[in-house]
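Support case: user asked for a sample of complex input and structure output to validate their parser. Sending the pair below.
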Amino acid sequence: MKKLIRFTLNGHEVSAEVESHRMLLEVLRNTFHLTGTKEGCGQGECGACTVLVDGLSVDSCLYPAFEVEGKSVTTIEGLVEEGSRLHPIQEAFVEHGGIQCGFCTPGMIMSTKALLDENPHPTDDEIKRGISGNLCRCTGYVQIVESIRKAAEKY
Amino acid sequence: MKKFDYYQPESLKEAYGLMEKLNGEARFIAGGTDVIVRIKQGALHPDALISLRRISALKGLGNEDGLSMGSMTLFRDIERDPAIARDYPALGEAASVLANPQVRNVATIGGNLCNAAPSADAAPPLMVLEATLTIEGPGGQREVSIEDFFRGPGETCLEHTEVVTRITIPKKRKGTGMAFLKIGRVAQDIAIANAAALIVVENGVCRKCRLSAGAVAPVPLRLKRIEGIVEGRKIEPDLLDRVAEMVQEDVSPITDVRSTAQYRKTVSGILVKRAIKEALDRAG
């Protein structure tokens, strides 16, 4: 079964013919070549595939592509601001070493965006709960939490 | 991954029609955080999925005479609802520790129940709150107490063509306190054990006690034998110790990757005891 789906992707109206068993992650990476969104576990445990759908963080590996019809999707590529400037959250991760191998970083940053959009001044506990669906296999959580704290100062 | 068709009906009638047309080879899907994972793992092989996300009759949260939730209510919304936090904190707490934010943003209370994991975090609070599930299918509507809903791991009393449409909770009585507790390896993990307690206290005596323990039997348990021991008594340390011992007798956990059966037994008793204490503090 195939269908033409229409949605907003990083601020642009897009459409794509999609097979019914595809997840949003596959459409982002294979159809739109937005490879910033990663596939880690594929089972909703690691958060490497986190994107925003209508402003809410979701695991795109478990999000049926058909469900995105009419919705607005933001990926890590969509955070880059005019003139290719990094988003303040991205800058904070760079400045404060919230990155080791980098594989979890796009997902971490998207979860951070969802967190700060709802709660611009989170406590450390709220930060940890906010990224509880994102695993860093390098275990660099201390710098990640610090990066989020610093990003919140500029939010 | 196995290929499947994906249908998005806008009404229950349309959903039943699709299920009939597909000769039962389809499966209903809510938020998908369990069903999609099981398809990816090869544990489910449906030819088609029928999504319930567009059916408006399954949405909405009302708090007039008790609490009424559409089965497609997101854990995200339960977690943030001020009336639930005030009147049914055990449910709000369970919603706030279920999996992680990404999952809570799509997972639904009806989906959590229909997946029927013995560890389902929504089950113990709904058990102690004596929730009623409204079930509907092409043949009509029926109401089932949550206690009678679960039949085994992954099994419920639902027919293949039926869906849970609504979950209702009776109005909170004066002097009621309740709590939900969970223990897991890390914040987002499935429970090693969970528990909920609801207590009504009058003049220092427990007038009503409802207890539930999860992840320690093939289905989420109501602990009726123990409720009977607590009711009519003053809740004191000796009684709580006895409760913890009795919980250990009444559960039948398994050993798996998350925990041993023995640890689950012990910790389940402790969780129930602590949940009663917390409920008692709140009954004030």
